[in-house]
Amino acid sequence: MKKIMTLILALSTFSVFAASKNLSVDTSASTLDWKATKVTGAHNGKVGIKSGNLKFEGDDLVGGEFIIDMTSITCEDIGREKANKKFVNHLNSDDFFSTSKFKTAKLVIKSSRLGKGGHYDVEGDLTIKGITKPVMFKANVDSKGKTATATADIKFDRTDYNIKYKSGSFFKDLGDKLIHDDVNLTVKLSAK
How many helices, marked H, and strands, marked E, lie in the chain? Predict the structure, then answer.
């Protein structure tokens, strides 16, 4: 009887570990787009993903993280080369992301549960400029064997990360110079 119980326990333990998988993010097939708005319009661009992983139990997303290369930030809506370079340099400055001091940002998935409508309700920690704040968002995940894709729209308040430049929350009478606090990220991860 002891042998049978030991065998059952060993098989059940093996099945739990066999069902767990940790997939590496394919940085060449993954994208992160950003969009920020102001009174007079909006700007948008891309940021590179440096590395990451997604953790699954069976086909269910349970955790993971990805590292963002903040030095790779681009702007896609300004066509003039000189103006584009000036804008990107400003994003890299201490007014915004201080990329000479903080070369990377990070999102860590703390918990994830399947919600109504087939999406996942995700809670995570977003770290920008060395400051970590909780974020919540919905993600769509397609996991098949040894590959997975995940997409999400994430919104964060830039002032939580000491990015106060022309924020109406800190400065008065900005008029049409005001830049809104919320920044939108569209994330598409491919992992294998």
Answer: 2, 10
